[in-house]
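Form 7-S
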Amino acid sequence: MRRKNIYLLLGSNLGDRPANLASAREAIRAAAGPILNTSAVYRTEAWGKTDQPEFLNQVVEVETDLDPEALLETLMDIERQMGRERSERWAPRTIDLDILYYGQDVVQTARLMLPHPGIPDRRFTLVPLAEIAPDFVHPQYGKTNQQLLRACYDLLTVREYY
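Output:
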């Protein structure tokens, strides 16, 4: 399979959040491919289930030769190895790894929808995404990440952490 540039969202709101993000980046490098670019780390309010600690979020650009389903499995394995428990939707977690874009591919299977359907609605995703890929065009909406961020109605706070 030919190598693809993909974008992943990393998030953590339990334990040593900066260390969790660093461990996730190392695991991604080892299992999925080299990291080409990283956004700053942002402090963000919890989205969906708001009565929990704030998150640290970061977007990374990775070059991979894994197909989308294999990439999903790899990321879920990393989450499990890092102590992620899937007890309820939007529950607090040591690590959350989401595929945002898989190149310009559109994928719709029972387990996976790409681009990630939440991109246009989530400031905690768009701020770091627009930082490292402002001109990347969403393959379904035909708008850049910067345009999507300007149009985003999400009002949750996203502040640079480091």
